[in-house]
Amino acid sequence: MSGDAKRSAEAMNEHGRGGDGTFTTDRFDTHFAGNTLGGRLAYAVARFFVCGFTQLFTRMSIRGREHLPESGAYVIAPVHRSYIDTPIAACVTRRRIRFMGKDTMWKSRWFGRLISTMGAFPVHRGRADRESLKRAIAVLEGGEPLVLFPEGERKDGPIVQPLFDGAVFVAARAGTPIVPVGIGGSARVLPRSAKAMYPRKVHVVIGPAITIPSGPSGRAARSDISAASVELRDELQRLFDEAQSRVG
Q1: What b-and-e string marks burial along 10-34, b requiring 16 or more CB atoms within 10 Å of the CB?
Q2: Residue 47 near residue 97, CB atoms below 8 Å
Q3: Structural domains in the chain?
Q4: Helix, strand or coil for residue 62?
Q5: Which residues contact 81 (CB under 8 A, 6 or more apart)?
Q6: Which CA distances in Å does 134 have to 22, 75, 169, 237?
Q7: What is the pLDDT of residues 88-109, one digit of tens each?
Q8: 3-state secondary structure at position 242
Q9: Residues of the chain with pLDDT > 90: what percent?
């Protein structure tokens, strides 16, 4: 097992996962894709098909990959206009990424297994945010990239909405950079009320990583987290505008 894989396994066990990779929520048993060779091969195969289809269907172009760290953990922070933003985010790097999902998505056993293979882990909506934050920090402590949508749920329109501090807070607590990502065109591929996807062009722009300074105690001050959130929103708006301009 590699160093990153070992740290990931240890971190997830410390933050509430069973040794068999099972999360127990109030309603469902859910599974976190492990760091075994089989788990990584399953992710590679699933990513090949999911990203292959997404890229072909949307004629996706990606600019700014040089801003992604080649190793270590970081937070990927995209704008969020469509459900298809999640597989789009998975296509920006060949490294395995993690992302959160409502625990009800694991109600279907086969679908739960599929999204777990793609790096998803469950959070219980309605429970205190502490659980979500602990699992997110555990992923980063394990050395893997994590997707967090700083606007929260899907939003509409060309303006980046006020951000929740969660994405910046998690990055600050884990001591990792946060990478802003603008996604243009995804709302036309899968609009909010649509029952089918449409073959529309998508362009992705990845911006330079944002780092949050830590204080003498090793933790970022609240003022630094707030300042980073403002910087992140401004950068997301710039990247979103650029991405949208490329798709018309």
Answers
A1: ebbeebebeeebebeeeebebbbbb
A2: no
A3: 3-247 (3.40.1130.10)
A4: strand
A5: 154, 155, 156, 183, 186, 187
A6: 16, 14, 11, 28
A7: 999 999 998 998 877 777 787 7
A8: helix
A9: 55
- SS3 call for 170: helix
Cα dihedral sign, 52-112-181-17: negative
Short-list 63, 62, 72, 78, CA closest to 235: 78
Q: Are 208 and 171 in contact (CB under 8 A)?
A: no
Q: What share of the chain is helix, strand, coil (3-state, %, to 5)?
A: 45, 15, 40
Per-residue pLDDT of the chain (248 residues; tens, 9 = 90+): 444 444 443 444 444 444 444 444 444 444 455 667 777 888 888 899 999 999 999 999 999 999 999 999 999 999 999 999 999 999 999 998 998 877 777 787 777 777 777 788 777 665 546 777 888 888 899 899 999 999 988 999 999 999 988 899 999 999 999 999 999 999 999 999 888 999 999 999 999 999 998 877 778 888 999 999 999 999 999 999 999 999 98
Tokens representing 220? 């970022």
Q: For position 20, what pLDDT does the model report? A: 41
d(CA 11, CA 133): 13
Taking residue 75's Cβ as centre, other Cβ atoms within 10 Å add up to 27
